Amino acid sequence: MTRTKTSQSQPHGGKASFDDVYDQPDPRGYFRTLGALEYQTPHHAQRVFRRLLAAHTPVTGEDGPVTVLDLCCSYGVNAALLRHDLTLGDLYERYTAPDTATLTSEALADEDRAFYAARRLPSAARVIGLDAARNAVAYARSAGLVDAGFGQDLETSDPSPGLCRALEPVRLITVTGGVGYVTRRTFAKLLPQIDGPVWVAAFVLRTVPYGPISDVLARYGLVTQKATSRTFPQRRFADAAEQRSAIEAVEAVGESPAGKESAGYYHVDLFLSRPAEHAAAFPVEDLLEGA
Q1: How many CB atoms lie within 10 A of CB 267?
Q2: What is the pLDDT of residues 137-185, one digit of tens each?
């Protein structure tokens, strides 16, 4: 994700910043810090993304493995859950365990390659990782979590030739924590590079508008559906000030924080964008029934 500050300040709409854990040489600090706040969006996304991959061939008629672009991939958390017989709880346990605490980053990556290889699903999707946090992407590559990884910030620069080539076969873009840090500018640079119909599945904080991004996606023939039957808890608030700011932001867009932000947790909405015929064949609410 595109982040520049490293303090516990609140530079993004009152939201606490954890920039110091997003671009370390390995993911242990990330899991220690966010685990303390019960960060859980990848858990919800695991079920949704797997359901999307299962539906892709029946809906589109395209055969073969689906290539996924995980936008704001960080250390490859979504790839770990999408491609392996693991839960988010397993990842928290692994990266906060005493027996991994004393390893160097290089030794941890070595062990991770074997750890993930032993748990790889036989029909694992191909995953490309993209994030402005270059150390995090490098770890995801080193641990074998992504097939290709790019530490690039498309908010401020154009995609490299290598990234452009890697994007051509993408059929699903996933994002679980980056909208607000990445904007319509990033999506406007991604979509022209993709050679074929693409689906976009985004978990977005209720405090962050998605309209500008869905407008860009519409220019490429994608219809955006929002799941209206439920939201998903993201994490506990870091402090009372963060909670007050989130409640105010949710109320400002005409939503109710009752039972959600008022209960102490950020919540995210699920947005799914696809060509119109795909959206009609597999509505977003049908997806949630299967997830």
Answers
A1: 23
A2: 999 999 999 999 999 999 999 999 999 999 999 999 999 989 999 999 9
In angstroms, the Cα distances linking 183 to 62, 188, 273 are 29, 9, 15
Q: List all residues 6 or more positions away from 168 whose beta carbon is below 8 Å from its beta carbon.
A: 193, 194, 195
CA pair distance 43, 77, nearest whole angstrom: 10
Tokens for 2, please give them.
Answer: 């595109």
Contact 10, 242 (CB under 8 A): yes
Q: Where are the alpha helices (DSSP H) in the chain?
A: 19-22, 28-35, 41-60, 77-83, 88-96, 98-101, 105-117, 134-142, 161-167, 184-190, 211-219, 240-252, 276-281, 284-290
CA 281/CA 155 separation, integer angstroms: 33
Place of tokens 């995090």: 136
Rg (CA), the chain: 18
Span 81-111, pLDDT tens digits: 999 999 999 999 999 999 999 999 999 999 9
Burial, 113: exposed, middle or buried (Cβ in 10 Å; 0-12, 13-18, 19+)?
middle
Instruction: Give the pairing type, strands 232-236 and 170-175.
Output: unpaired
